[in-house]
Sequence to fold (372 residues):
Amino acid sequence: MRISFDRFVNLRLLLSVEGIGPLKLRNLLSKFKSLEKILNSSTTSLIQAEGIDKILATRISNIRLTKNKLQINLEKEYDQLLKIGGSVLTVWDTEYPELLKKIYDPPLILYIKGKYSEFDKFALSIVGTRTPTAYGKNQAERFSSEFAKQNIPIVSGLARGIDSIAHKSTLRINGRTIAILGTGLDVIYPPENKKLFDEISEKGLIISEYPLGTKPDAQNFPKRNRIISGLTLGTLVIETALNGGAMQTASFALDQNREVFAIPGNIDVKQSEGTNLLIQKGEAKLVLNPEDILQELELKLKPVIGKNIPKPSIELSIFEDKIISNLTNTPIQIDKISELTSMSTSDCLVHLLSLEFKGLVTQLPGKMFALI
Fold:
């Protein structure tokens, strides 16, 4: 704990330097390899790092003089963090989430309450409007509950509306959920979610990149949204206006090369404008049920849900059903299928084409067919 705290002090000290942000800090680390070496380097050495001019180098050299004072203040903050059951992670700690570490701008410091689980790398995020329609509420509960049944952690932002429903629906069936805050861990927003906050911190995980005492300022939430998408394999958007925060989360997910899904909505309802636009522009995959997402991410989710992915119910005619019952994953030639089903070759081809459209059968060269 002390090694982690020392790193925490050095990191906060460097980030307090005017003009030093995550990018310049990474440039310094690529040259000096450790925070301690950066702080102990001369001005002449510092200006050799990319993006560090003489003014910045001088500021870094001077900041060392304030370390003792900062350390005293941070020890108080650290003690307060421990009192509320929190802890701190830096991007260099082994417990830091691997998925989040891979995004362009991962938070260098995370304040957490609860425990990070190995299964959290299979998480999905669910986001949406703070003022959902009855349809949006039902879909948020439906998708969250199904994912939780499949042992998939659900990440959201503890906001009113879709976020809160996603958290509550997951907890209702004893699933795991993670809340990402735009405030310090000691500032619960919205305040009416105090009970929900406590339950998540007890059974799941609360994460913030902001120090204790940080208020819910508007500029905090867009940054918060990149963590929601960055922690997960994919993001599901359920109802959002065109300028909603969920649209920002979807944009971050696309930039992070993560999957984006959206549920279509009523074209006459403002809350559906964002989701419908994401689908129309091809930025999100249209989903009608939880199985659509489970199948899309089947390979990535397999370690956590195995072969328990429910297949969507597809209506088959008696002829299609007859053909399906005679097919396997091993390709069969059309004449053999005709023989097995006691149907003409032409009839078989018609029904096989229909099964292809339904995504159940694939055609191979030589009029060979197999189950997908």
Observations:
- The longest strand covers residues 109-114.
